[in-house]
Amino acid sequence: AEAVLAVLLCRNSEAQPRERLIGLLWGDRADKQARHSLSQTLTSIRGAIGDAPDPVVADRETLAIDPRAIDSDVIDLLALAGSIAVPAAKRGMAWSEILAETHRVRAAARR
User: Is 35 exposed, middle or buried (0-12, 13-18, 19+ CB in 10 A)?
Assistant: First the structure.
């Protein structure tokens, strides 16, 4: 369950094809078994949250996280990263570089 949530959280509400998740997490299994594993995982997530709003937005083809239904450092970080103007030359940077740039910008703003 954690792996499914991690993949969806890191995509910041962007719908992910079920096929992608199946390939990433259960690529070593037969298609029917892999699909069943994804279904079981979604049932597990929904069972664990009880009466709280369902954080997973699902349709027949895709899955996504509803950022209003879940509180996550990943969502906060992606929102912060999206609020920083990134010059065209720096787009495509690795996450470690983005985090370092974010830290530099925040430190400069505090001065």
Answer: middle
